[in-house]
Request: fold
Amino acid sequence: MNNMLSPVVPNSTPVLRATGLRKRYMGKQGPVEAVRGVSLQLDAGQVLAFLGPNGAGKTTTVKMICGLVLPDEGEVRILGENPMQSSRALRHVGAVLEGNRNLYWHLTPIENLEYYGMIRGLPRREARQRGWELLEQLGLGDKAREKTHSLSRGMQQKLALAVALIHRPPLMLLDEPTLGLDVESAIAMKRMVRELAQAGQAVLLTTHQLDVAEEVADRVAIIRRGELVAEGPPAALTARFAAGTYILELAQPLDAVTARRLEELGVVHPEPRKLTLRGDAQLFWQVMEAIRPAEVVAVQRDRATLTEAFLQLIKEESDASDTAAAVR
Amino acid sequence: MLPTLRLLSAEVWRVWLNFRRYPNEAFASMTSFTILFYAVVMGAQGATAGPLALGSGLEALIVSFVLWYLAVIGLGSMAWGIQTEAQVGTLEQLWLTPHGLWRVLVARVAAFATLQLVLTGVLLVAMLLLTGRRLFVPPETLLAALPFLLGINGLGFVLAGLAVMYKNITGTINLAQYLVILLIAVPPTAWPAVLQKVYQLFPLVPGAEVLRQLMARGMPLAETPWAVAAANGLAYLVLGLLFYLWAERRVRRSGRLSGY
Reply:
């Protein structure tokens, strides 16, 4: 995508800095801590995927960042400005919340863009010109004068993204941007998110679709029961859960004596010519010694997917909570 | 252009777009106005003045009608707007503008009222030309109407605050219209003696009384009653806005801005 999407980023201040956000709601069975001490930072050109199961606190956090929900504790700075105190800080923000429900359905796409452009401070001529450019870039040029309600869901989602981009905000907040889209539209949406980052936009997206996070994010933050349980580049997270997992492929099946020796070392031996071992380098060389002189065809270090990392993290946290509850 | 003017022009453009988009609605609205003004200009006075009833002359009837029309817009438009935007799902997007939600709502009311006044004015002038009647509204009428208009918009903010909290307040808006009619249709001289002493504290009443003195009783615009009425109108406007801002903060604290 060309520089028409480029935001105006005034300086090297982080685009987003959220510190210690907490939110508690009154539920039917007493207070519920929806968000517990979440801190995030996002720089220009970065995509941060906010991952978590349903009800983990993702949307509440995003809404606190843009001031739609007031936190009980913590603070937010968008390019150094506080959106809780000054709505002017919101000129830096574009948000797509709840998919296509950000649009006026009786207006056409170009009218939606003109209107939102003007109320966000663009002169009408510029809003119209930029609206047309965005529609062309998103492949909606031929739909510009149709009623929004007649567009497909994928097109409406693209239009919602265009509306959020109309004033070139440095920070984009996308709440479940691919939810409910067909495969083709979801692929297009992921490509657009990457292009936004390449154009210098900081993008915070929430999703519970792990493939989305893995494909588009520079960093992933995993939230569970309102608390951040992990944050980092997807590769680092997956490496954390894949560390020390080796798969050895052998030319011949092992004899019974060697197989027994490997069992003593705790090595899994699911197939006659395949060994899976979890452990450090010392174990690796112990195994190599044990199987000598067997011919090794291939050694592969296993790479976990983000899905496996996510599931393990969620499980670890769940086990930790259960243990803590039992101790209490 | 200043951001506020740009916001206002955006809202005028949107209102005009809606007006053109639904021509049957526009036609029905224009036709009803035409019939109404024709009736006023031809002398069917009693049925058209509205609850302000500022006299039986053509000028008084027109002023009564226009003021009542503006009162209805000022009272309920912001609340209706919030209800509709919450149903459509665009309320949060309006909040996310650099203006804040209440300024967008005020711009909408102003845009809608402006369009309606322009159309009304055009129709009225056409009627006067057709019938050969003349109309002279003294300039001080605008000054006299100001306290009333300030007060009604203050009550509009209160309804907007209730709408932002509860999302559907159709019944409350209707009830508020009846309460306003009750306040402005009966002059304080007809009130119980105890209430007569404090009528300046009631919303809209001093403003309506100033208008009544000027238009119905033909008295000049007196400074003190006008100042009292203006203070009353301003106070209710400020209180209404404060109530609205409190309500908005409350729903943001409870996370219920987009829905109830």
Remarks:
- Residues 150 and 234 of chain B are 6 Å apart (CA to CA).
- The radius of gyration of chain B is 19 Å.
